[in-house]
TrEMBL record:
It comes from Herbaspirillum robiniae. Residues 1-19 form the signal peptide. This is Lipoprotein. Keywords: Signal. It comes from the Bacteria.
Length: 94
């Protein structure tokens, strides 16, 4: 049982190491941007990764995330990973 847990944890660490984010950049008072990419997740997975990161960022501020713009690129197999650029606002929770 413990070996199975360790193998699962190791696989998760390897996959997460291949995912990256530019971090959140503030564009305006409550408007932010981030770029997410991953060699392993594909275009939709990268978009979901970006949404999750934006949501977590706003929740950490005690606010609610709202997408105001997004762009995705498919990348090129082996050469360039897919990317998602997400612009979002952190609105007051209500």
């Amino acid at each position: 049982m413990m070996g199975r847990y360790l193998a699962t944890a190791a696989a998760a660490m390897v996959l997460s190491a291949c995912a990256s984010s530019s971090g959140v950049t503030q564009l305006d008072r409550d408007t932010y941007m981030l770029t997410a990419s991953s060699r392993w997740r594909g275009n939709d997975g990268v978009a979901i990764q970006g949404l999750q990161q934006a949501d977590a960022y706003c929740k950490n501020l005690g606010r609610r995330m709202r997408v105001v713009g997004s762009e995705r690129s498919d990348g090129l197999p082996v050469v360039l990973p897919p990317k998602a650029l997400l612009t979002f606002k952190c609105d007051p929770a209500g």
